[in-house]
Task: inverse folding
């Protein structure tokens, strides 16, 4: 998809932070040591691991760790107060989409890392059970990447006579390389085959 | 606790090595995805030794609908419609959280009218009660207590009626909007709310009388699925499930939003960490939620309910026929939406299930660049892997019920 006028290539770098978290950007090589240090500092809860795809940027992906400084012991609201939030952004190149796992530091990282792997194709080295979690096991592609078609590659390939012309003219040539004309030929072939099949059936 | 005289002490510790070492006795059992007590489409791969669970591996994704991907292809206001469908038992908490995040990106958080903020709190708390009603009713059914379901759904129906009168739909009213709420509360809404406030204490006493002191219920839930504070924090538990383990972390207290700092309420907590503690914490929460509702009801004053900014909120419908600018603004907002300055923000709220958050990235266009959800249900459900081993299969449904997962949110 071509960038629209005025669209930012790297939005998080453009603006001073809006929320009250401490925000840090880090390279994959230092990530594990930094997270280990943060855990020792008292960030006992890993709230979430998310990822964002910036196709125009190098490195292409951002993996975002949200941490919360919550003591793992019985505490009242006043003892907790306003716990510190920490946001760690880690750029991941598309050539080597691989990060070290943190499942041994936080139990909650398990499914979070599986989801990033499933939807973005970023692997986590050392994860005990790195399988797809949301999509079916044999799914093709990683849906939340920006170059993944909204309807999915399978839909993109199958002929859809009623919409084929329109959607392809609007969208231009799809990533699969098919043109509207090729699609119409495919539809015509399918119809011809169907018709001939029916005639054969009648002849018999 | 053996009321029926047949129940012995349950093995609460993880199954010891002497059982695990008996090779060949373990059986793999697939529970779900169409099991009636899994609250949706959840499959659990179980490894069992006799009646005891030695390993439980929840398999999710049966309800994955790609909401985060869809949201990237819709305008900022349209995306809210699909986002509201994540947690279908508490839809308004989803839209509230998303709306707060977008408002932070737009920099209009301070300009939201007071009445709109109050109505948002009102709706969020009513949603919490409605959501806990569904949880309590279905949790009861899982354990064979059928009557509570009808009491709960009667109460919930009153709240859904109120929701319907605000946004027009029972389940997904889409009433909270970027910049305020869609319209002022309709005529007669507050009278019905008063009737609900009137009705609630007696109904709550009935709910408590049905189960809280019920020896069978206690027998099924006490000391089942115990989560220690360390485990709770490690698994990323939030909401009532975390507070039942003794950590009274509540986003409404820790990071107040939408004016929660103006209301007085307690954060219920227990220290046992078992299914019964989670049950009691949620019941207490329903009462606290209604306490906030009563305060909001008192504090409600007439005023605008939408931000006075035609670049974000369409001008009132009745001005369209009179003003050219109003017509143009209306047309622009409907046909191409509005642009949001580039940046990223993490906004959390206390949903009925825990810390619900959206990490929203804007690249300056009229569509969200990325909406990442922090789904509390998913992290709560994940902890089943840690707490199920060592318990009986029959207690598994107790644990699932007490964690209160909603699969629209787990799978998105």
Result:
């Amino acid at each position: 998809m071509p960038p629209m006028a005025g669209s930012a290539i790297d939005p998080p770098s453009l603006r001073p932070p809006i929320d009250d978290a401490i925000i840090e950007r880090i390279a994959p090589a230092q990530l594990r040591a930094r997270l280990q240090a943060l855990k020792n500092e008292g960030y006992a809860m890993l709230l979430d691991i998310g990822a964002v795809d910036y196709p125009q940027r190098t490195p292409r992906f951002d993996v975002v760790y949200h941490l919360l400084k919550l003591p793992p012991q019985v505490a009242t609201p006043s003892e907790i107060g306003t716990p510190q939030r920490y946001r760690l952004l880690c750029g991941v190149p598309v050539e080597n989409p691989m990060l070290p796992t943190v499942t041994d530091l936080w139990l909650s990282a398990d499914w979070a890392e599986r989801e990033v792997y499933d939807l973005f194709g970023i692997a986590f080295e050392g994860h005990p059970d790195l399988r797809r979690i949301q999509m079916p096991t044999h799914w093709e592609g990683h849906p939340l990447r920006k170059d993944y078609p909204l309807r999915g590659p399978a839909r993109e390939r199958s002929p859809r006579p009623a919409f084929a012309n329109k959607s392809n003219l609007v969208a231009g040539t799809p990533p699969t390389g098919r043109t509207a004309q090729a699609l119409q030929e495919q539809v015509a072939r399918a119809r011809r085959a169907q018709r001939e099949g029916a005639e054969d059936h009648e002849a018999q | 606790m053996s009321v029926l005289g047949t129940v012995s002490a349950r093995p609460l510790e993880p199954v010891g090595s002497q059982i695990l070492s008996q090779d060949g006795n373990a059986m793999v059992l697939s529970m779900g995805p169409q099991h009636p007590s899994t609250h949706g489409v959840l499959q659990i791969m179980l490894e069992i030794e006799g009646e005891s669970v030695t390993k439980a591996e929840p398999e999710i994704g049966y309800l994955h609908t790609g909401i985060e991907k869809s949201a990237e292809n819709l305008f900022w206001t349209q995306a809210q419609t699909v986002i509201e469908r994540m947690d279908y038992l508490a839809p308004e908490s989803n839209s509230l959280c998303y709306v707060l995040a977008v408002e932070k990106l737009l920099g209009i958080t301070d300009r939201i009218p007071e009445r709109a903020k109050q109505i948002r709190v009102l709706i969020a708390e009513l949603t919490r009660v409605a959501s806990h009603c569904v949880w309590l009713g279905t949790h009861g059914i899982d354990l064979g207590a059928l009557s509570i379901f009808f009491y709960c759904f009667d109460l919930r129906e009153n709240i859904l009626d109120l929701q319907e009168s605000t946004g027009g739909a029972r389940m997904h009213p889409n009433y909270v909007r970027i910049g305020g709420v869609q319209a002022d509360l309709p005529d007669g809404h507050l009278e019905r709310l008063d009737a609900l406030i009137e009705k609630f204490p007696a109904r709550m006493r009935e709910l408590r009388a049905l189960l809280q002191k019920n020896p069978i219920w206690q027998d099924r839930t006490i000391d089942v699925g115990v989560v220690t504070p360390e485990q709770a924090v490690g698994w990323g538990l939030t909401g009532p499930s975390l507070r039942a383990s003794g950590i009274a972390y509540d986003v409404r207290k820790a990071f107040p939003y939408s004016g929660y700092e103006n209301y007085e309420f307690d954060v219920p907590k227990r220290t046992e960490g078992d299914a019964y503690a989670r049950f009691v914490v949620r019941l207490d929460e329903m009462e606290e939620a209604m306490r906030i509702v009563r305060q909001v009801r008192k504090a409600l004053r007439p005023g605008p309910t939408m931000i006075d900014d035609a670049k974000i909120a369409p001008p009132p419908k009745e001005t369209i026929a009179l003003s050219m600018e109003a017509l143009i603004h209306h047309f622009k907002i409907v046909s191409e939406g509005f642009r949001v300055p580039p940046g990223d923000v993490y906004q959390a709220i206390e949903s009925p299930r825990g810390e619900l958050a959206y990490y929203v990235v804007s690249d300056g266009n009229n569509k969200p660049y990325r909406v990442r959800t922090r789904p509390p249900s998913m992290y709560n459900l994940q902890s089943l892997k840690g707490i199920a081993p060592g318990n009986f299969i029959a207690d598994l449904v107790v644990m699932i019920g007490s964690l209160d997962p909603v699969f629209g949110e787990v799978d998105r």
About this structure: The CA atoms of residues 38 and 44 of chain A lie 9 Å apart. Residues 1-5, 164-169 of chain A have pLDDT under 50 and may be disordered.
